[in-house]
Amino acid sequence: MSKLLDHLTGDAEAEAFFSDTADLAAMLRFEAHLAQAEAEAGLVPDEAARHIAEACQNFQPDWSRLAEGLTKDGVIVPELVKQLRQCAGEAYAPYVHLGATSQDVIDTSQMLRLKGLFQLLAARLDELIEALRRLEREYGTFHLMAHTRMQQALLFTVADKLTTWIAPLQRLRINCDRVANELLVIQLGGPVGTRAELKGKGDQIAEALAKSLGLSNAPCWHSQRDRIGELGSWLSLLSGALGKIGQDVALLAQNEIAAIKLATGGASSAMPHKSNPVPAEVLVTLARFNAGLLGTLHQSLVHENERSGAAWLLEWLVLPQMCVATAAALRHALALSRSIQFVGSSKM
Amino acid sequence: MSKLLDHLTGDAEAEAFFSDTADLAAMLRFEAHLAQAEAEAGLVPDEAARHIAEACQNFQPDWSRLAEGLTKDGVIVPELVKQLRQCAGEAYAPYVHLGATSQDVIDTSQMLRLKGLFQLLAARLDELIEALRRLEREYGTFHLMAHTRMQQALLFTVADKLTTWIAPLQRLRINCDRVANELLVIQLGGPVGTRAELKGKGDQIAEALAKSLGLSNAPCWHSQRDRIGELGSWLSLLSGALGKIGQDVALLAQNEIAAIKLATGGASSAMPHKSNPVPAEVLVTLARFNAGLLGTLHQSLVHENERSGAAWLLEWLVLPQMCVATAAALRHALALSRSIQFVGSSKM
Amino acid sequence: MSKLLDHLTGDAEAEAFFSDTADLAAMLRFEAHLAQAEAEAGLVPDEAARHIAEACQNFQPDWSRLAEGLTKDGVIVPELVKQLRQCAGEAYAPYVHLGATSQDVIDTSQMLRLKGLFQLLAARLDELIEALRRLEREYGTFHLMAHTRMQQALLFTVADKLTTWIAPLQRLRINCDRVANELLVIQLGGPVGTRAELKGKGDQIAEALAKSLGLSNAPCWHSQRDRIGELGSWLSLLSGALGKIGQDVALLAQNEIAAIKLATGGASSAMPHKSNPVPAEVLVTLARFNAGLLGTLHQSLVHENERSGAAWLLEWLVLPQMCVATAAALRHALALSRSIQFVGSSKM
Amino acid sequence: MSKLLDHLTGDAEAEAFFSDTADLAAMLRFEAHLAQAEAEAGLVPDEAARHIAEACQNFQPDWSRLAEGLTKDGVIVPELVKQLRQCAGEAYAPYVHLGATSQDVIDTSQMLRLKGLFQLLAARLDELIEALRRLEREYGTFHLMAHTRMQQALLFTVADKLTTWIAPLQRLRINCDRVANELLVIQLGGPVGTRAELKGKGDQIAEALAKSLGLSNAPCWHSQRDRIGELGSWLSLLSGALGKIGQDVALLAQNEIAAIKLATGGASSAMPHKSNPVPAEVLVTLARFNAGLLGTLHQSLVHENERSGAAWLLEWLVLPQMCVATAAALRHALALSRSIQFVGSSKM
Q1: Is A123 exposed, middle or buried (0-12, 13-18, 19+ CB in 10 A)?
Q2: What's the confidence (pLDDT) of residue A274?
Q3: Taking CB atoms and an 8 Å limit, are A5 and B70 in contact across chains?
Q4: Which of B35, C93, C255, D168 would bridge C85 by S-S if both were Cys, CB 3.0 to 4.6 A apart?
């Protein structure tokens, strides 16, 4: 839809993880490593695994047929596997995607990309905490009026205020590592999640696959979407903590309060005197947007049977948006923290 | 993000209303017609209005500066007006955007495009109702087992079932006209919504502007977002009614029930015998997606002061998605209704 | 749970419509009038209808068995009908609940009570609009600083501000009548919604039933929940409009802005100097609460088959809360509007 | 509102934690232990701490004045402290609630009760996992048709199915301990969250208070609501996992599939042959209810300034409901797991 708006609420770095090419690359990585792990387990000839790895590397997708496949099948995988098998050649075709199902490829591809995304978010979070600490070093001793229930309460300091912004970010930063480690796992189950098609070697193959892909290992979780729900919760907790900062800044930057000045304010088309706290407002927006999406994401926990097309697709519509919104919020929070000037004087 | 996924849950025709070029075209239409209405009211020389209309027609935007403007100001309008004034020339520049504010342009542009969108939805809804009636003519007398609380209840007919699908669509179709008429209105208020800059001619100008733009007339509603909330509700009611159809089809098409066959089912990458009811599942997904988004859209009713950057931006993130999801749902429902075959025999 | 909290966010008058006794009374009213309408249509002997009406009037429920019935059956109706048949006596028992199903009783009972609730809301809305107009008469000419994007914009007047509060309430007041008329309808369908058990007299009985109950007539809508979704939307639009007022008041009553003083502010346990704008905050809370609940209510539009226990029950958990929250919001808004004092002086 | 409905979607044991008397008891516990911790730190005479402890034990609240206080102040604490000071006597009154603020009492009281609630949920979760394992021991080797995308996929076993139900519950059970340990913390900050009123002894007092109350220690978190958001997420993940079980049971118990029989099915008022899977449906309802509430709870992360009346109150409306819904879902899941009979025969 609007590309322009992406400059405000999108995030090019984060969106890159959710492009079709990134998805396809991760899917091919899955297929290549799966064949390799299956070769190690003796289910696939070494030569086939090598050829499949090459095919994955040289693969040129027919995008329009992938699109047709998606429309018809609800997932691109049947068509993708067909194309990949052609690319691998008749002799090796049977070993492509052996014992796997669409959901294995799609969920693992998503997890691979979420891993990159979480690294991006962690790095931005580190940077933001550091920027807020710089504010603390510069302005920490300044007086600031605390407000409760929208009324003046008592004086405290800028350092006291910044503590309330930084502390949740630190907790979320610590949690980020736990979340990434516990929740970013491979998916491997085969058609109905039993790994039965892997002839007793399923767990061994899963372990090797996880290791080579750099994800945590886990039993099949096709219809168990708690990890997805928990990932979403972490994202919304983070954008919520940033939304609180944005709301505070917008309030403190009110002309009548003027406890904060922003180095760069937005202009108005009709009122040239104005300096609008645009990034602060965007943080509030993204927090509320993500909060609502989290509620929708958790609707998809009711994942019927062994694979729910409806609940799964709902995740696809929601989770990438939450990732991008969170990344955008971090970007704005960082810019905002660099443009904040606290007004006032040091506490004696 | 994923372009491929748009084939499933997006809708090219609907998305076109929310592209940057469509937005810009509608904004320019607003500016041209505003100048014309102001000329009729004697606030702008006729010659200026003509030149502004021409400038709007010939305008070539500098997109990258519009993007910068959006990032800085939270809206593209200050930068757009600057460019448009340059295009109109120094003599006429003061008459461009005279007495208007960013929100006037942006909200009216959205309403203009929503008008086209609602026409699209109405046309598809008509087509869907007709397709369902064709099913009724073909299969209406067939026996069908009714189910309540997920258990067999009593036999009724396919016509009885189709009535439960068609009746809400008919109500929503009727409501569509009311909604379009009552809710699709111009926005014109000036900086703080009082039309004070229009020197007593505000209401006259608003009336002329509404007429020439083909929207309903209304007093300024900058901070009064009930119309937006109600538009969203209609969209979600419609996608919800379609989600109910999708859920019913998925249930009736279960192999063990087999009351419905779909002419075109989706394939599985691992289970060639399967025929998946993909469009039915998509309808359920889109209903749940829109329901959640509606809850978020209504959060933006708490629109603080005379213009809330935060609440307004939240609408921009949500409402276009709801429009597209509803259009996509109608497209799938139409395709689905054409691929449904009821299995069974006529009631005696 | 907390009864105390009901003093803040509950509403005794509104809650009364959703008590078990109010529900039971409305259910008995349905059964009595159904028997009467069926008598008029010749399906039930007049004497039976009279006896059933008497039984409904004298009925003393065994609440603990109703509770057991609810737990077991998911609805109280099977047990209630059993008790009511005993009360009516063996001879008339077969005519009790004739041709109806649980959903007919429950949905109609709810609609009857919603009718009372909407009358309550309409009356409060009238009162609130009048109270705001009084503010306009008293303070309308006062200067007030307008704020856009959380920054000072331009001076306007208290009347300009009040217009932004009153106008949506007026639209919602007008819509209230339409909503009540279009959406508050009887439910009558029998086991699978076809009225087949009423032997060709279903439509005639429905018409008489609607007339005698004071509800609008409608075909069976067991699995068509658009009316419920639209009722919820109206509630959330109203609480949202009130939340906007609350947010504005909280902002204008900030000590640093002090454009509004509240006659009665809340105290702090630790800061005796404070005067907290409690009802203004409550309005914001209730708006956000209802917005979220609306999203959940629309999830129940995906009402599978001829009657969904799961989707229907979700409505029961959500809609009464929305009604009470809206009534509470109106009560607070009214109190607030009576305690507002605008500070300043008249515009010249 | 409806007390009857509480038999279905409420839970007496869980609700008890959220009664006014439980709240008051926990608040008094806070005040008594605070005075004791302050005595140990030398801020309060030992004798005063003893008298305050006694006053807390013997305290008889004037509920109607507490209600008035809540209505006026938005919290009961100012009025409660006033009553408690009277009870403690003039000499000790100044030491009651010394250095604390309303939010300290209210948040700590909630955490104390959440601790009990989480113990209840953990115990039920253990019981449920054990009940599901019993099903596995009894039926694990039975054939069962797996379904993906609402279509028959391949045969697997009841044990395979049960694994998909049990595994998320086990993860959530492990997470329950982490959540309780990390997130159930005391609140102590004083008026603006700095512990300044505790004269340098704040951290020491907090540590002693946490220890004596059996909660984890933490710095003040008045405006940092990430813990609340994360608690809510855990609740919704659990009810979501149970909703998935409920959905599966409802699908498997369809007459046409009949892979599951329920020992106790619900009756219909019009169709005596039916056996409705009521508890399975309730699980789906509660999952969707909690998912929606989670989205609303995360809206309250945007907690403006040092204390937001609006955002805080939103938590109070949402979190207790989520707790009760989750407890009710566990109760139904347990009952359901005891009434499930898988139909079929052992796999060879």
Answers
A1: exposed
A2: 75
A3: yes
A4: C93
CA distance D141 to chain C (A): 30
Q: What is the pLDDT of residues A278-328, one digit of tens each?
A: 999 999 999 999 999 999 999 999 999 999 999 999 999 999 999 999 999
Residues C170-194 pLDDT 10s: 999 999 999 999 999 999 999 999 9
Residue A266 has pLDDT above 90, yes or no: no
Please compute the mean of the pLDDT values over residues D21-49 and round it to a whole number.
98
Per the DSSP assignment, residues forming a β-bridge with B340 are B262
Which chain C positions have a beta carbon within 8 Å of B289's beta carbon?
Answer: none
Task: Write down the H helix ranges in chain A.
Answer: 6-9, 12-16, 20-40, 46-58, 63-73, 77-88, 102-139, 158-183, 202-213, 226-252, 278-299, 309-339
Residue A348: inside a domain, yes or no? no
Q: How far does D152 lie from chain B, in Å, by closest CA?
A: 6
Point out the residue among C276, C292, C296 whose CB comes nearest to the CB of A149: C276
For residue C45, is pLDDT > 70? yes
- Residue of chain B whose alpha carbon sits nearest to that of C285: B302
Q: Is residue A268 flagged as an active site residue?
A: yes
CATH (domain of B203):
1.20.200.10
pLDDT digits (tens, 9 = 90+) for D158-217: 999 999 999 999 999 999 999 999 999 999 999 999 999 999 999 999 999 999 999 999
Nearest 10 degrees: Cα torsion A260, A264, A265, A271: 120
D143-148 and C340-342 strand pairing: unpaired
For residue A280, the cross-strand partners are none
- On the CB side of D115, how many CA atoms lie within 13 Å of its CA? 19
C347 found inside a domain = no
Q: Which residues are A266's β-sheet partners? A: A276
The beta-carbon neighbor of B301 closest among C240, C292, C298 is: C240
Q: Do C268 and A154 touch (CB under 8 A)?
A: no
At B275, the pLDDT band (50, 70, 90 cuts) reads confident
Which residues in chain A have their CB less than 8 angstroms from residue C276's CB? 148-151
Nearest CA distance, D189 vs chain B (angstrom): 30
pLDDT at B180 over 80: yes
Preferred mutation among D221, D293, D294 to probe A, highest tally of A CBs within 10 A:
D294
Percent of chain D having pLDDT more than 90? 94
* pLDDT tens figures, A89-137: 999 999 999 999 999 999 999 999 999 999 999 999 999 999 999 999 9
Q: Which chain B residue shows the shortest CA-CA distance from D254?
A: B151
Domains contained in chain D, number: 1
**C321-348 pLDDT per residue, tens:** 999 999 999 999 999 999 999 998 885 5
pLDDT for the residue numbered D347:
59
Distance CA B344, CA B324 (A): 36
- Would you state the pLDDT for residue D170? 98
Residue A211 domain boundaries: 3-342
Chains that touch C (3 or more CB pairs under 8 A): A, B, D
Q: How far apart are CA C310 and CA B149, in angstroms?
A: 8
- pLDDT, tens digit, for every residue of A186-200? 999 999 999 999 999
The nearest alpha carbon in chain C to B233 belongs to: C233
Handedness of CA B111, B116, B117, B123 (dihedral sign): positive
Chain C residue numbers with beta carbons less than 8 Å from the beta carbon of B223 are 164, 244
A307: chain D residues, CB-CB within 8 Å: 148-149, 153
| Nearest Cα residue in chain A from D221 | A164
In a domain, A225, yes or no: yes
User: B305 to chain A, minimum CA–CA distance in Å?
Assistant: 12
Q: Which of B149, B157, B163 to mutate to test the interface with C (most CBs of C within 10 A)?
A: B149
Let me know if residue A285 belongs to a domain.
yes
